[in-house]
């Protein structure tokens, strides 16, 4: 029978999977693994022996529920064994035990409801009860006394009596009293494990449970002794066997159809196998990454061989959809790690769909972007359908050939256990671990909202009046310049850093010759490879924001930003973001800028430069013309976002004389250092070179702007927003970005002497690295702001 062949194997595989999940989530030491595997193997062997004793023996529906209870109990036993070596997750242990006890109410009811109650099922149920009680008593004994072990040992003492005394092997008549006593042991021991009652009360309950158990066992022994002479006759009556049903004839297939079926099954197997072991940390896959034995596929084969047709198909479709989602998440993980140096966050990153489509349209054009979006949607649909079709094929093949499918799955499960115990990476539970990680990521993302809500009101300068803010910068125009993708890799340990450093050194010398001084350090950005606005809000607010969800939450608050501090102190505050082409709500509702400039209102009439719509030189010239060149005005605080160094670096402008910039139309006639997108993304060396040239252009432009327009009343703070993507920065790069302060007034530089930053525009490897969120408070403090006492 199918159950006779596969029940123990399915149970063993499920129990090993539970151990693997425990190891991947809460951790499982050597003791936990050893006890768990030993219990799983012993339980599978005993169940197989029980099924083999009679042709009529089979696992009925109720016994499958009992097998689930057994699987949970193996997890409890493993956690109990681990508790002697390290702290145990008590809540998880109690939860597993409680679920197992609750299912005990179901299997008996199900057996009676379906008319499938059997001696094997009753015995299996009782042994699982006894096993769970033993595990819980071992856990409770160190706390409440070694005598508690008597509760767990009672059943096994009785079994020893059965082995020694034949008359004790007779079946006992059913009695509700015994069921109540057995259930009470599990409930009381679970409460003891939870440690929710006073010690004295718990000891009293445990003693009462033991007393009831002693009475129940004594009653059983007494009944068996009185009826010992009827044992042989009862055994003869139970020996009546039912004939084995005839197997259904298999359909006859021709050689072509058989060959095609084999090919399809092999393709399905390879697809599912590859999907389960697909790496999610790198875009470069070696053959060795796929030399894995995924435990999940063994479970699929075993379950597919055992279930009836309809449940098997339902399971295959559901599991296929889940597998498709996991493959999609793995692909997203690879993309996010490559671009942002972190895996995909399902809570926050789903909100980037619209932003990503808009960025794609800006980069490659609306028509091409729409085609790519449709292609991605089709691919996503295929990822949901193909795994389901593959699993339908695979489970059907396992069911049609269960005579070899189940033994093969069992043998591979044994191999998996051996590999796992040996610590070999080939024993894989990657898909299960990914599910656990995504669940934990969701939980972490949801908790982050409350953590941020508590952090927002904690602000030293929240109530500081304007006359006590930024007194050291009175009368100065302060320009906060964010340079796109300007990271540590631009200035240190890269193939293009010598060129960038040459530009920085030249700029430092030119500024010094014109009477300007500069100091440079590093900040650790809250983002990597993109999502610049997260770095902007982190710098301005003094709270580290690394997700869109956090950005949205903070932007709805009244947290003090640098722009608000300057505005409160009497400055006119403005923002210029050349990439933006729509209303920016946060610009007025959160940053409270007096004026927001974007590509719609700066008067640009020149060409676009790939994704950047205008060169940085025009952006700075527009700020000078629209704000700084005006007479009889208040001092200005401006945040200016410079994006000529934004990927994909396909069109890099040239610096031209400032008096020729005009409305930007001249850039139609200025030669460009230009390359195609295909070449850039097909050649990382060329991409790195183009990135370096874009940084050289922007830093040269800033230096030239300061020399032409800045006065002793100008202070420039320029910083990178984040490192470029890993294709440029490399794997494992830091989040560090350079930050510089430029001023002609020596009093400004003197006020930041305590920062110990490097002289000049080029930071040294030993320059201090601050968290980006620390800059706001240090800047406010250095320039004469007084923290409020309220």
List keywords for this structure.
single chain; 790 residues; alpha/beta; nine-stranded mixed β-sheet; two-stranded parallel sheet; 27 helices; elongated
Structure in words:
The protein has helices at residues 2-25, 30-52, 61-83, 90-114, 119-144, 149-164, 176-194, 199-226, 231-238, 255-277, 295-306, 309-340, 353-364, 366-400, 402-421, 430-455, 497-513, 532-541, 548-555, 562-568, 585-589, 616-628, 677-682, 684-709, 726-729, 746-751, 775-782, and strands at residues 293-294, 427-428, 477-483, 517-524, 572-577, 595-598, 636-642, 651-652, 673-674, 714-720, 736-743, 758-759, 769-771. It is an alpha/beta fold and 790 residues long. The strands form 3 sheets. Strands 3, 4, 5, 6, 7, 10, 11, 12 and 13 form a 9-stranded mixed sheet that branches. Helix 7 (176-194) packs antiparallel against helix 8, helix 10 packs across helix 14 (366-400) and helix 12 runs antiparallel to helix 14 (366-400).
Entry summary:
This protein is an alpha/beta fold and 790 residues long.
Tell me what portion of residues adopts beta-strand conformation. Answer: 5-15%
Compute the gyration radius: what is it? 36 Å
Helix percentage range: 55-70%
How many beta-strand elements? 13
**Which structural class do you get from the secondary structure elements?**
alpha/beta
Termini Cα gap: 78 Å
Oligomerization status of the protein chains: single chain
Q: Please state the overall shape, judged from the principal axes of the Cα atoms.
A: elongated
Number of helices: 27
Mean pLDDT: 82
Walk me through the topology:
Layout: H1 2-25, H2 30-52, H3 61-83, H4 90-114, H5 119-144, H6 149-164, H7 176-194, H8 199-226, H9 231-238, H10 255-277, E1 293-294, H11 295-306, H12 309-340, H13 353-364, H14 366-400, H15 402-421, E2 427-428, H16 430-455, E3 477-483, H17 497-513, E4 517-524, H18 532-541, H19 548-555, H20 562-568, E5 572-577, H21 585-589, E6 595-598, H22 616-628, E7 636-642, E8 651-652, E9 673-674, H23 677-682, H24 684-709, E10 714-720, H25 726-729, E11 736-743, H26 746-751, E12 758-759, E13 769-771, H27 775-782
Parallel strand pairs: 1-2, 3-7, 3-10, 4-13, 5-6, 5-7
Antiparallel strand pairs: 4-11, 4-12, 8-9, 10-11
